[in-house]
Every structure is written in structure tokens, then in C-alpha cells.
Amino acid sequence: MRRIIEEYGQTILEIVGGLLMFTVVSAIVLTRSEGFLKLFGTLLKGGM
User: What angle do CA 45, 17, 4 make, to 5 degrees?
Assistant: First the structure.
């Protein structure tokens, strides 16, 4: 178990960090552009 954590810990951190960055950037972009916000909402509804 510990070996798995050591091997994949860095990868998991990079993925989580990437997702956090993506979320923050998306939030900034969305707050600046209302049209994109509506598009994103449509995509989210379609995705669920």
C-alpha cells in the first residue's frame, strides 16, 4: 500500500493541482464573460 502511495502520490498531486488551476482559471474567465457562463451552464446540464 505504501509503495503505491509513494509511486502515485506525485501524479495524484499533479492531477489535483491541475484541476484546481483549471477551476480557478475557469472561474475567472466565467466571471468576466456572461455569454460564456451561459454556454458553460448549458454544457454542465448536458453533461449531467
Answer: 105
Count the Cβ atoms, other than its own, within 10 Å of residue 15.
11
Other beta carbons within 10 angstroms of residue 40's beta carbon come to 14
Q: Give the distance from CA 11 to its chain's centroid.
A: 15
- pTM for the model: 0.47
Q: What is the pLDDT of residues 9-28, one digit of tens each?
A: 889 889 999 999 998 888 87
Q: Which amino acid is at 47?
A: G
How is residue 30 written as a grid cell?
A: 466565467
Residue 40 has pLDDT above 70, yes or no: yes
Residue reference for cell 502515485: 8
Q: How far is CA 16 from the centre of its chain?
A: 8
